[in-house]
């Protein structure tokens, strides 16, 4: 066989199909503005391409990182290599978008605003997708996933502490509202986690009751399903009148914070939305307890209460925890709507920004909300896997 025929017979390396999609998204991002410059916070923005938004050397570094990242995404590299490269590209992206704000902001100009452009967001999405794919292929154990999340959180914290992002418009909005931001953040956490805690305390016993008393199950789940179909804004509005009546006519109700607007109706609405997943998952988890485990518990002379606490609930717990995870992520997002009825939370900045046509103020409320939901999903997914029967530890 000749050298030419050997070269012809050699198979062409296959390309990563998801990597091709990532490369296409990267190409689209590179063709869009990297940053947006506005002379004032509410003025129309002017897009700046990558070569316009950065000095020559940083722009060259960014272009090289994008090209290398795209080649690694398309090629059949080991998942660990893809993970490392995508994290490096994301780190460069996050650092240079801050430098772009410094580069584009005129000296001593306190009115100009620089925001990440559509190109930055698309590039971030593309390489975040590459990270997600690599993590899925590597199948890290739960504690390793939590450790990666903690490392990313620390890295972002260091980036904020370093001042690299100080000239970005979202950080300027934060600087003007730092005290209000942390106050609304505490309110947001109270609404999201408080409603889930209350729904868990009420929903798990209700799910146990529905499991034990079968005629009750259909009625309870149907009522909870009907509540889920009510739009969130409508439910918040429906609660204003009855809670206002309670505050006016029940002694002590107003003193503990119950009123027609504010945190009370928001908490009640989120609690109501949380019940169905928790009750339904409790029922499903208990239904899926193996008969052999039930028979063994009865053979040991366990009472109904002992079987429930010692056998049924521990085996059903991963399914119940999955329901709690769904509810928590849902409520972190829905808590933003509470601002419409004076409930506070990060939604205050979202709706203020919409009203003022200030998109950076919208981002000040939206970004921490998305980050909280993502972190909660990662942590609870890891916990579900840790407590699952046969799960890795």
From TrEMBL:
<feature type="transmembrane region" description="Helical">
    <location>
        <begin position="334"/>
        <end position="354"/>
    </location>
</feature>
<dbReference type="Pfam" id="PF00528">
    <property type="entry name" value="BPD_transp_1"/>
</dbReference>
<keyword id="KW-0813">Transport</keyword>
<feature type="transmembrane region" description="Helical">
    <location>
        <begin position="223"/>
        <end position="247"/>
    </location>
</feature>
<keyword id="KW-0812">Transmembrane</keyword>
<feature type="transmembrane region" description="Helical">
    <location>
        <begin position="253"/>
        <end position="276"/>
    </location>
</feature>
<dbReference type="InterPro" id="IPR051204">
    <property type="entry name" value="ABC_transp_perm/SBD"/>
</dbReference>
<feature type="transmembrane region" description="Helical">
    <location>
        <begin position="308"/>
        <end position="328"/>
    </location>
</feature>
<dbReference type="GO" id="GO:0005886">
    <property type="term" value="C:plasma membrane"/>
</dbReference>
<feature type="transmembrane region" description="Helical">
    <location>
        <begin position="80"/>
        <end position="98"/>
    </location>
</feature>
<feature type="transmembrane region" description="Helical">
    <location>
        <begin position="361"/>
        <end position="384"/>
    </location>
</feature>
<dbReference type="InterPro" id="IPR000515">
    <property type="entry name" value="MetI-like"/>
</dbReference>
<keyword id="KW-0472">Membrane</keyword>
<comment type="similarity">
    <text>Belongs to the binding-protein-dependent transport system permease family.</text>
</comment>
<dbReference type="GO" id="GO:0031460">
    <property type="term" value="P:glycine betaine transport"/>
</dbReference>
<feature type="transmembrane region" description="Helical">
    <location>
        <begin position="18"/>
        <end position="37"/>
    </location>
</feature>
<feature type="transmembrane region" description="Helical">
    <location>
        <begin position="189"/>
        <end position="211"/>
    </location>
</feature>
<feature type="transmembrane region" description="Helical">
    <location>
        <begin position="49"/>
        <end position="73"/>
    </location>
</feature>
<dbReference type="InterPro" id="IPR035906">
    <property type="entry name" value="MetI-like_sf"/>
</dbReference>
<feature type="transmembrane region" description="Helical">
    <location>
        <begin position="143"/>
        <end position="164"/>
    </location>
</feature>
<keyword id="KW-1133">Transmembrane helix</keyword>
<feature type="domain" description="ABC transmembrane type-1">
    <location>
        <begin position="185"/>
        <end position="380"/>
    </location>
</feature>
<feature type="transmembrane region" description="Helical">
    <location>
        <begin position="118"/>
        <end position="136"/>
    </location>
</feature>
<dbReference type="GO" id="GO:0055085">
    <property type="term" value="P:transmembrane transport"/>
</dbReference>
<protein>
    <submittedName>
        <fullName>ABC transporter permease</fullName>
    </submittedName>
</protein>
């Amino acid at each position: 066989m000749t050298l030419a025929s050997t070269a012809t017979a050699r198979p062409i390396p296959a390309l990563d199909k998801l990597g091709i999609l990532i490369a296409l998204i990267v190409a689209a991002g590179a063709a869009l503005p990297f940053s947006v410059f506005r002379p004032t916070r509410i003025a129309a923005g002017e897009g700046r391409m990558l070569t316009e938004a950065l000095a020559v050397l940083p722009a060259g570094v960014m272009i090289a990182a994008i090209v290398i990242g795209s080649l690694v995404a398309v090629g059949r590299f080991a998942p660990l290599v893809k993970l490392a490269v995508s994290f490096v590209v994301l780190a460069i992206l996050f650092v240079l978008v801050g430098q772009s704000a410094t580069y584009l902001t005129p000296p001593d100009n306190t009115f100009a605003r620089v925001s990440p452009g559509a190109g930055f967001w698309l590039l971030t999405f593309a390489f975040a997708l590459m990270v997600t794919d690599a993590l899925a292929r590597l199948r890290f154990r739960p504690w390793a996933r939590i450790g990666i999340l903690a490392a990313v959180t620390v890295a972002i914290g260091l980036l904020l502490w370093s001042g690299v992002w100080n000239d970005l418009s979202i950080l300027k909005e934060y600087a003007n509202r730092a005290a209000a931001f942390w106050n609304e953040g505490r309110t947001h956490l109270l609404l999201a986690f408080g409603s889930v805690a209350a729904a868990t305390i009420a929903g798990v016993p209700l799910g146990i009751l529905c499991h034990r008393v079968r005629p009750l199950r259909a009625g309870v789940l149907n009522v909870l399903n009907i509540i889920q179909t009510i739009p969130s804004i409508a439910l918040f509005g429906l609660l204003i009148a009855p809670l206002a009546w309670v505050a006016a006519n029940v002694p002590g109700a107003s003193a503990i914070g119950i009123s027609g607007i504010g945190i009370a109706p928001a908490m009640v609405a989120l609690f109501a939305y949380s019940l169905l997943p928790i009750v339904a998952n409790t029922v499903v988890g208990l239904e899926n307890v193996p008969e052999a485990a039930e028979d063994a518990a009865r053979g040991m002379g366990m009472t109904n209460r002992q079987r429930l606490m010692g056998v049924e609930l521990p085996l059903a717990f991963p399914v119940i925890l999955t329901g709690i995870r769904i509810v928590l992520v849902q409520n972190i997002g829905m808590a933003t709507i509470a601002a419409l009825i004076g409930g506070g939370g990060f939604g205050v900045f979202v709706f203020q920004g919409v009203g003022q046509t200030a998109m950076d103020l919208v981002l000040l409320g939206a970004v921490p909300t998305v980050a909280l939901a993502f972190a909660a999903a990662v942590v609870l997914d890891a916990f579900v896997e840790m407590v699952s029967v046969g799960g890795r530890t």
